[in-house]
Design goal:
By secondary structure, the protein is α/β, with parallel strands linked by helices. It is built from 15 helices and twelve strands. The protein is globular, with a radius of gyration of 22 Å. The structure holds NADP nicotinamide-adenine-dinucleotide phosphate. NADP nicotinamide-adenine-dinucleotide phosphate (NAP) binds next to helix 1, helix 4 and helix 15.
Length: 373
């Protein structure tokens, strides 16, 4: 019998760090910088990371030799507005010598435009922004090919369910040869809050006002209630599951009344009250049948490899997991050939700076692990 000698265990403390540039130091980017600053010492699962800069619309810092989290924050406070062409040149040149990841935590389309050229230049990208992965199917396939780990890595776990392990789970199911039969869920904490209010007898317009005043909606509530955020999450899930889909193919029920479309923001919450009676009747009819209304997103594969996607209000059994969902949680059910009799269920808070930054940090560490192998 051949005896095998144990492989040497690499000492993570001396591994080359992954260098991290953070674009966007708002709720998520700020929490990410703090979480990187507070990481325990490197280990086999946690290769070393090093911050090399950050930017907002007001300031940009690039520190070739690395900087700690506090130093980065104080340098940002005094820095001039970022010169993007120069900044991108610096990041690309840096990545020629050292493994580098660019985090897009801006949610801005001009920054999402940089994702593909950065990947093509060998800079890995991790992002909680849904913008880059929801452009055309062809654009998504380019990002996937450029970011497959050959030249660089493209990771976007926090785009769906924030820190919940949704994208990684789906990727693992597909990679291990399972077949996705359907994905169904509630992907908007704002909508869950809204429908829980309706069940308590609160009028629709008043429920929107409460969600807005408590900060559960986007600054303009039409952005949540139009359903576009859920549409983007579904497109990302469908494409991650290997299905092809364009935005124009998604069926979406908007909860924004026609009269609210062109109004200034100050008048918008009043306009949501236009159909209070219709909503009360809908909620009442569902309750008489033992059901509750939820804003549900569905993905189903078509025979042609294209995804069939629908986003809208559905009546679900009050005692089902979706019916019992409360607070601002997300709940995602994935039914596959292996999980055919009961779906794999992922549930928990689907937004918030700390959990979202944690999801991005998990992506950054996955890139670091891939580089340290
Ligand atoms: N917040 C959440 O719970 C959550 C959950 C899941 C996903 N996300 C996604 O995470 C991303 C960030 O969200 P957030 O809540 O952190 O947003 P945020 O608080 O508004 O912060 C955005 C940051 O990006 C910066 N920025 C915007 N455009 C820029 C540009 N062109 N160049 C440089 N910097 C720019 C802003 O700069 P200034 O400070 O100068 O304005 C700000 O620092 C979004 O894509 C969002 O959809 C957020």
């Amino acid at each position: 019998m051949t005896s095998l000698s144990p492989a040497p265990v690499p000492d993570a403390r001396h591994a080359t760090p992954l260098d991290v540039f953070v674009a966007g130091v708002g709720h998520v980017g700020g929490a990410l910088i703090d979480q990187i600053g507070a990481l325990p010492p490197p280990s086999a699962d946690r290769p070393p990371l090093r911050l090399i800069g950050a930017c907002t619309t007001r300031g940009g810092v690039f520190a070739h030799h690395g900087v700690d989290a506090d130093g980065l924050r104080s340098a940002l406070a005094d820095a001039p507005a970022p010169d993007w062409p120069r900044l991108l040149d610096q990041i690309v040149a840096h990545a020629q010598a050292r493994p580098t990841v660019f985090v897009d935590a801006t949610g801005h389309p001009a920054v999402a435009d940089h994702v593909e050229p950065l990947l093509a230049a060998g800079v890995s990208v991790a992002t909680p922004s849904k913008l880059a992965p929801t452009r055309s199917q062809a654009a998504f396939e380019r990002l996937r090919a450029l970011g497959d780990g050959g030249l660089a890595h493209f990771r976007y776990e926090a785009t769906v369910g924030a820190g919940l392990p949704v994208i990684g789970t789906l990727r693992d199911l597909v990679a291990t040869g399972d077949r996705v039969l359907s994905i169904r869920g509630v992907f908007s904490g704002t909508m869950t809050y809204l429908f829980s209010q309706l069940e308590r007898g609160v009028a629709f317009g008043e429920a929107v006002r409460r969600a807005y005043e408590q900060g559960y909606t986007e600054p303009d509530p039409r952005d949540d209630l139009g359903g576009e955020d859920v549409v983007r999450k579904l497109i990302i899930l469908a494409r991650t599951a290997g299905l092809r889909v364009e935005r124009s193919e998604v069926e979406v029920e908007s909860l924004v009344p026609a009269g609210a479309a062109g109004l200034p923001l100050t008048l918008v919450t009043d306009a949501f009250g236009a159909d209070d009676g219709g909503w009360a009747a809908r909620v009442g009819a569902a309750a008489r049948d033992g059901q509750r209304l939820r804003y549900v997103g569905r993905v189903e594969p078509g025979a042609d490899g294209r995804g069939r996607l629908r986003v809208g209000v559905e009546a679900v059994a009050a005692e089902s997991p979706l019916g019992r969902l409360g607070g601002t949680d997300n709940l995602i059910e994935i039914t596959t050939a292996r999980y055919a009799h009961a779906p794999l269920v992922i549930q928990g808070p689907g937004a918030g700076p700390a959990v979202t930054a944690g999801g991005v940090l998990a992506d950054v560490l996955a890139v670091a692990r891939a580089h340290s192998r």
